[in-house]
Fold each of these.
Amino acid sequence: MDIFKQSREMQQKLGKALDIPNDIILDLPKITLIGNVQLYIENHRGIIEYSPETIRIAVGIGELEISGSTLMIRTISKDDLHLDGEVEAIRFRR
């Protein structure tokens, strides 16, 4: 077992013991998709690429790629991002 996986497992056990959600303890994004027309992302680290067809967002585990059509950023803050448009695919990349 590699050291990265061991560290993640230890963090999960600690989070469970302290009743802390995994998205916080593991620095994971929290993603809420409403149908295929709205997407909320919490715990992001900024935008890498932006076009009406593709939005790439930095997250703690790498990056998140959203593809679709008429994609637009409705609101963005330090931690949260709200997208509108027709979402066709969501991919995680390390």
Amino acid sequence: MDKKEARLRRARKTRAKIAELKVARLAVHRSNCHIYAQIFSGCGTQVLAAASTNEAELRNQVAAGGTVEAAKVIGKAIAERAKAKGIEEVAFDRSGFRYHGRVKALAEAAREGGLKF
């Protein structure tokens, strides 16, 4: 089993538990150059809000997309967009990534922005 398979196995276990809860899910994905956040509906079929360092308006706020500072900007942006849609509470899906560095920074920024998880 390589790193990606192990990460996806961890993600599958988390997503199965979140699916039982039937709550909105804040999914995070990170690559070397960018970080992405999406909020899915309780049934998992609709994307309710999204933010990433690929977006032009957010790209202007950060020098590089693969940094902790960029993750904080994305966390604040996803929290604002969720609040605008009336979403207060979500389940955090770290997609099998360790709760460390950029993933942790995004989660803490989203909490500061008003999301509860």
